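Q: Predict the bound structure with magnesium ion.
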Amino acid sequence: MIAQDNDIPYLREGGKRLARVLEAVGRATVPGVSTDTLNALAEKLIRDGGDKPSLVGYTPQGATRPYPATICISINEEVVHGIPNENPTVIKEGDVVGLDCVLSHEGRFVDSAITVVAGNTDKDTQDLLDATKEALMAGIKMARSGNRVGDISAAIEAVGVRRGYGIVFELGGHGVGNSVHEGPYIPNVGDTGKGDVLTEGMVIAIEPMFTEGTPFVKLLSDGYTFVTKDGSRSAHFEHSVLITDQDAEILTQVK
Ligand code: MG
Ligand code: MG
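A: Predicted complex:
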């Protein structure tokens, strides 16, 4: 969306609410908990706030059925769009767990993802998470009016290359605000100075995904879950941001 003045307070409030939901679900992601329990928690928190979970019932382009859950939960080699409530998984010690959710607050949509480790972490795991988050922040830094989509993509790619991770290039970010997915597409690899020009008021979701192995992914037969082709672990971080003529405003954080 190109946010108008009257959209911005709702985007900010919705973003803050989504950040709180993800924080709470992240804290609840401990060894022994089931993914359908986490999904139910996300749904309860969103509905208690008076908002709508936007993923459940949503059919993305190319999908053959609506997504069945409130939150996507993707564990270890699962990259994105894992389904938490059809064949629930019990989280194990050390699992790398991606939590990705969209809500709408007063009709405005915000999208965010975090990756957490269940129980104790170790250096390799923490490096993977830190690098992916670093790439997100590097992408956000390039997100300002007058820059191009490729400036964001190139910044994400540079972090992945420097830190030695596989950069998932078949999936990426997108416009958001009026619906779950809008244009423009925001690739996770690309060239500076290429692509659509960013303009003030645009709301976009930036979402790098890194892997410990090769960057290739495949779709499982459930029609949603993307896994790494080589079985390596992956991480995913995402923010919805508002483009201004200064640094982008991160909407999906607890201020
Ligand atoms: Mg998302
Ligand atoms: Mg997204």
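A: The chain has one domain: 8-250.
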